[in-house]
Amino acid sequence: MAAKHVIFDFGQVLVRFIPAQLTAVYVADPADRAEVEQAVFAREYWDKLDAGAITDDEVKHLFCAQLPARLHAVACRVFDGWIENLPPIDGVVAQVKALKARGVRLYLLSNISCRFASEWPHIPTLKELFSLFDGLVFSGPLGLVKPHPPIFAHLLNTYGLAAADCVFVDDNPDNIAGARAVGIDGYLFDGDVDALAQKLSTVCGD
Predict the structure, then answer these.
(1) Could you tell me which of 142, 117, 99 has the C-alpha nearest to residue 7?
(2) Which residues have a Cβ under 8 Å from the Cβ of 109 and sit 6 or more positions away?
(3) Which of 43, 74, 106, 126 has its C-alpha lying 20 to 30 A from 37's C-alpha?
(4) C-alpha distance from residue 71 to each of 32, 37, 59, 61 (Å)
């Protein structure tokens, strides 16, 4: 049966989230850039941000404690500015627009911070992109994260969707497994835009 709804992940599916590039926007010196990147984008902080378990100010305090004082200000600029510096993956965004034009209902499900969830409406590029979607679910404000089934169930319940009518696109195999655990078909995106287009064409009944 053809899917009626497509659920997209955000980072590394719709946009590129590459810490080295996000850091380079603000830090020119290669050695400083590497040090700031390692501190600011430490996975332990970002997992907690995604779960809504730590505040931005707490994260800044923690990473500044690892850096020399001369890098504190620029490290905070990197952290505050990453939301505005996410380049779209053009081929995928084009597919989103094509699906929208065909009447396919579109949803976003992202592990991402509370600050992102509150600030994206003020960023023109993200406001334009998210206007294509019929529903948005961000992990931070919920305290629920992929790959655990409750966040998928929340999306289904919030928007009145049947799992069997959905396909989920994500770049993380654990998240695909989480979707399948609640009955949602999953597609693991590996950066091959043409293969994704073929999958969506097939499952959406093109």
Answers:
(1) 99
(2) 7, 8, 9, 137, 146, 151, 152, 155, 168
(3) 126
(4) 8, 11, 15, 13
> Would you give the distance in Å from CA 15 to the centre of its chain?
8
Give residue-wise pLDDT tens across range 54-96: 999 999 999 999 999 999 999 999 999 999 999 999 899 999 9
Which residues lie across from 168 on neighbouring strands?
7, 186
Nearest to 187 by CA among 170, 172, 165, 175: 170
Give the integer Cα–Cα distance in Å for 168 and 187.
6
The pairing of beta strand 105-110 with beta strand 5-8: parallel
Note whether 3 and 106 are within 8 A (CB).
Answer: no
